[in-house]
Design goal:
This protein is α/β, with parallel strands linked by helices. Helix content is 41%, strand content 21%. The chain has eight helices and eleven strands. The strands form three sheets. Strands 2-1-3-4-5 form a five-stranded parallel sheet, with helices on both faces. A four-stranded antiparallel sheet has the order 6-7-8-9, covered by helices on one side. The protein has a two-stranded antiparallel sheet with strand order 10-11. Helix 6 (152-163) packs across helix 8.
């Protein structure tokens, strides 16, 4: 999943970005609402995390403009403003959740999981396909009762495939939702990671779950 972090405090911006990248999310970051609009004009994000008090364009104005444009991307406000009125204002202007600074990173991750789950229409953090089980809360994967150890990126790629089970996903779509603008690696990165997943998820089992749809991309199906 790909997240945009909008935060004008440089150290906090970098910390949030790095910690989210460490657990496998694709993350871009900027420092005010005007920059955020530039990012949003070229990329579809799965979630926006934004401060409220920022220069040039504050978070409330940013989200109001997005909602007026009809964009429904989930929004999590981060703010030191902790009054009930502040929270109500953030939610009323189009925010989906509001977290007061300072916050525990574990709580931020939990709120991110909830918003991504709601946006995908999935009501549980336990995803399945046949005998494959992914528990998003515990960050664990099993198939046929066997524990499968995945890297952070492998986990996020498998998660996106499971969320879109039965849907053909192009390489471009997979890249856009798993990696960020900072990625500067091989052009066939999706093919590389699909091979990693197949080795761990499908090898040794009678039924393959990850399928290639020639000329279109990949699909996970039972």
């Amino acid at each position: 999943m790909r997240i945009l972090v909008v935060e004008d405090e440089t150290d906090l911006n970098r910390m949030i970005k790095q910690q989210l990248k460490d657990v496998g999310y694709g993350v871009d970051s900027c420092f005010n609402g005007e920059e955020a609009l530039d990012y949003l004009s070229v990329t579809d994000y799965d979630l926006i995390i934004t401060d409220i008090m920022m220069p040039q364009k504050d978070g409330l104005t940013l989200i109001k403009e997005l909602r007026e444009e009809g964009k429904t991307v989930p929004v999590l406000f981060l703010s030191a403003k902790d009054s009930v009125e502040d929270r109500v204002q953030g939610l009323d202007c189009g925010g989906d959740d509001y977290l007061v600074k300072p916050f525990a990173f574990a709580e931020l991750l939990a709120r991110i999981r909830v918003l991504l789950r709601k946006n995908s229409g999935i009501k549980t953090n336990r995803l399945t396909a046949g005998d494959l089980i992914m528990d998003v809360d515990t960050h664990t994967v099993q198939r046929g009762g066997r524990n499968i150890v995945l890297s952070a990126k492998e986990f996020q790629l498998l998660h996106y495939l499971l969320v879109n089970k039965g849907i053909v996903l192009s390489r471009e779509r997979l890249t856009n939702h798993i990696w960020d603008f900072g990625y500067d690696g091989v052009s066939n990165i999706i093919d590389v990671y699909i091979r990693y997943l197949r080795k761990k998820i499908d090898e040794g089992f009678d039924q393959a779950l990850i399928h290639t749809v020639r000329g279109r991309g990949y699909m996970l199906k039972e």
